[in-house]
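Folding Problem: From Residues to Backbone Shape
Fields: amino acid sequence; protein backbone structure tokens
RECORD BEGINS BELOW THIS LINE
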Amino acid sequence: MTGDKFKDIRPYIGDEEAPALKRIAFHPLLKDISAYLYPGKNPDELRSFISSLKSVDEFQGKVMLFAIKKIVSDTSKGLTYSGIENLTGEKKHLYISNHRDILLDSALIQVILRINNIETSELAIGDNLITDSFIEDVARSNKMIKVIRSTNPREIYNSSMVLSEYIRESISSQRSSVWIAQRNGRTKDGIDITEQGLLKMLDMSGSGEFISDFDELSIVPVSISYEYEPCDFLKAKELYVSKRTRYKKSPGEDLNSILTGIMQYKGKIHINFCNPITAAELEACSLKAKNERFKSLSEIVDSRINSGYKVWNTSRIASDILSNINDISSSYSVEERANFEEYCEFKISGFEGDKEEIKKIFLSIYANAVKSE
């Protein structure tokens, strides 16, 4: 890999790894992290342990794996998964998943890969989330690829080309798999759609042969399903405001969403690794006009993600409430419905605005999953 060309966006490698881990170890925030991960223990123990690590792989396996497992244990009813058999052998893949939580979507995938003795992937993350040097050290010590956000068209083109080249080189050289979300930003309304712009970005580094270029990336769609949507009320509020004016994020909003996503109760979580996109499917796409090729491929990815998505009773209940169906479905109990209705009312109770409208938006975030079944 041409390290210098990708230095500003790639994860830490080689002699960059140990110094970054030492910076993490002695950052003041580690005291609070230690208090959460190891309550009652002296934070110096964690500082000493992290500073003794020499590689990203050690950090992921000995620190991050425990941290994510603790988050799952503390804030959910458990993590299940399926389709791991689709990741056979040593072949590297481009994992394209739906995007419901800023941090956990990719982190949970890494946990599943590691516990199945599959090498963890690199993670494409927007640079808008890298708000300080500590977060950058933690992210790049977790195989983060920095996605440069910009409003300047020339900068967008140049950074997209570099990102495309890096992803293709990582996978085609069989150095590392890569995870990327199907869209820029989380799904707010519960409808998972792959942006054609993502596929066009990936195509930028290709040879011009549609079939071989995408086949080389070995795309594996991934479905992530949370029983209780991370940041559900924050998403509903954003949609409410967006109906009235252009939504503008407040300072620190992304960090608040990360922390809320981590700490909010998530119920059951399921991740499905779908069947890889085949050369035959790519050939069918290639027969269409240029722009239609990307549309057709995005629809295949969407179909995989939607078919692999696990629809929880929270979604069925929300759908029935919106449809004014009061008969209890055979798929859920009276108690389940009462509990979800109470949950909904609690979430919107402090909202200063049209309560009926925010309730409808909130319920739709859940109910839209039923429409995709």
